[in-house]
Amino acid sequence: MPFPKNLVALARFGVLGCVASSAFAQELNLDEAVSRAWARNPALQAEGHTLIAAERQAQLSGLPPAFAIGGEVENFAGTGALSGMSAAETTLRLSRVIELGGKRNARIALGGAEIARQRDVVERRRIEIASEVTRRFVEVLARQERVAIAEQDRELTEEIRSVVARWVNAGRNPESDLLQSDIAVLRAGLAVENAERELASAKLALSSLWGELDPKFTAVQGELAVLPPVADFATLAARLPQSADQRAFAFETDALEAQRRVAAAGASPDVALSLGVRRLETLDDDALIFGVSVPLGTARRAALGVERVGAELAAVDARREAARLDVHQRLFALYQELQHARHVFDTHRNDMIPKAESALTLNRRGYELGRLNLLIMTQAQQVLVELREAQVDAAARFHRLLVDIERLTATSGAALP
Questions:
Q1: Which of 187, 238, 410, 416 has the maximal Cβ count within 10 Å?
Q2: C-alpha span between 156 and 396 (Å, rounded)
């Protein structure tokens, strides 16, 4: 099954770029990450084995009733005239149940419906794995950006410390400014270390999806700051009736309909036939025997089975309607959050960060001219760092929300091999 087309669009546009990775740089792009997870994720492999089990069960259910062979010995090892084997009657019998009412065809149809339902489970699990890979991929991208911000802040802090040291040595500023700058450098170093540790955790969380507990990649490729356009809410909502989750209800309904046919077929009683040979020792002769048996009460049992399945079908319909209402409101809430995340990102990028950068430049110049104290300049620097981190958070949130929306609306008609 190909990557769900909506998620493919996400992968190929913006944040998740698909530049071919370099084996030497050990950089990872989203397509490679998803491919690894699809090939090696244990949960997905488990669903694949369950599909094989469903196929074997369908083959087993489609077999006709087996022949049975049996025998019995009567009137032996008794007393008097029945002692030993002289009066024994030995019977060898071959029997088989003859199914009526189309039971075998109904079972074959049920097996096919169960296979189709399990194939759909595998397909939905592939979509879920792709979505989770994308979420964790975005998290690694965000953590990479945070490391870069922390390193930039450390470099700036060290530059400011050099300026402070120059003015302190010149006697223009108090030595306490230098001590404060030393503390700031140490704190910036700790921030870098913390960001690097969080990045390592995010990378492990990503690689664990394909069973790799020691990530072999050094970085992931993507542009977190590129927010792709999104269809309007009405367009997204129109996809919901054909979504993978809604299709699951259709497959469940098909399987239950097949179960109802099996139950209805049980109203026709099966006929058990047997044919055998009996050896009569007292007469020193052989004789054929023939037997027929028909169960009673099958119609009532079948009716109860049909009613049970009918109730389950009604329950599925109710769950489908409840899910339809729930997913619509979830999609609306996600869409509102997505729009807000874009607005937050744009506001930080276009307005707040440029102003903070200008403010820091002016404050630094004012400090060097002796017009401002160190506290004002360091506060301006801290505000800039916080705004840059907030911009990264807004971008990452946008992409995670977009993944959630794509998951809700994902459709795929591709058949699995």
A1: 410
A2: 25
Work out the angle between the directed axes of helices 30-40 and 5-12 (0-180°, nearest 10).
140
Query: Which class for 367: exposed (0-12), middle (13-18), buried (19 or more C-beta within 10 A)?
Result: buried
What residues does each domain of the chain span? Answer: 5-409
For residues 19 and 221, the answer to whether their CB atoms sit within 8 Å is yes
Residue 212: what are its φ and ψ, rounded to 5°?
A: -105, 110
Instruction: pLDDT band for 184, please (50, 70, 90 cuts).
Output: very high
Cβ neighbours, 10 Å, residue 158: 14
Residue 386 Cα distances to 150, 183, 314, 393, 397, angstroms: 10, 18, 54, 10, 16
Strands, sheet with 285-293, edge to edge from the N-terminal-most edge strand = 68-74, 89-98, 271-280, 285-293
The CATH classification number of 5-409 equals 1.20.1600.10
Gap between the Cα atoms of 378 and 187, Å rounded = 12
